[in-house]
Design goal:
alpha/beta, Rossmann fold, 7-stranded mixed sheet, two-stranded parallel ribbon, 6 helices, globular
């Protein structure tokens, strides 16, 4: 939990921010107006990415214990297009709202699917299918298994570490995520290889 003495810092966010930004430039359109970040974590990605997309209102969300740290990053960055964090836990909380007149054009979530349980992954996907309109895009970044196999020894080690921290955590199978998204009305349009054996998946709402 954030103590308030200094901003929380995740080294992984610092390492992956530029590759993710380059990928998001291929996904986000000049006509997009609202982006929801699910699992904003420390807030580092929000303050780094949002300034590169001035047409967007960047909405942050996470569990309440993370909110103080996110606010600290937002306050120090002074980017007016970033909204304060809202509480969102898939399967428990209501899906966040953009505003009264429009929904989210893009939902972005980095390093979240392997942390939350599979039931929560499915609840998140169900929320996306219920609340996003045709043409909206969903971006998932993180490690994924392929054909039920780890893509690198480091991912196998990471998966073992995850399960030691929380038995419900695990690297997800790409095929299982894709099938669940298809059932919710999405099609995978981009599957980008990323550094450190990660992937960035882009799904379009049909």
């Amino acid at each position: 939990m954030f103590s308030g003495n200094q901003k929380p810092f995740a080294p992984a966010c610092e390492r992956n921010k530029d590759p993710i930004l380059a990928a998001l430039r291929q996904v986000i359109r000049s006509s997009d107006r609202h982006l929801l970040e699910v699992g904003s974590g420390t807030g580092q990605h929000a303050v780094y990415m949002a300034r590169h997309f001035p047409q967007l209102v960047w909405h942050t969300s996470d569990l309440p214990p993370a909110h103080a740290g996110i606010r600290a990053w937002l306050e120090s960055a002074g980017v007016p297009s970033i909204q304060p964090p809202v509480a969102y836990e898939a399967g428990r909380d209501d899906f966040p709202a953009a505003d009264a007149s429009t929904g989210f054009d893009v939902v972005y979530s980095a390093n979240t699917l392997h942390i939350i349980g599979w039931d929560q992954v499915l609840a998140l996907i169900d929320d996306l299918g219920t609340h996003l309109s045709s043409g909206a895009r969903v971006v998932f970044y993180g490690p994924f298994n392929r054909g039920g196999e780890y893509t690198a020894p480091s991912n196998a080690e990471f998966d073992r570490w995850l399960k030691q921290q929380n038995p419900v955590s695990a690297i997800r199978d790409f095929e299982a995520v894709e099938q669940a998204m298809q059932s919710a009305g999405f099609q995978c349009r981009q599957d980008m290889p990323m550094p450190a054996n990660n992937s960035l998946l882009v799904f379009h709402r049909l």
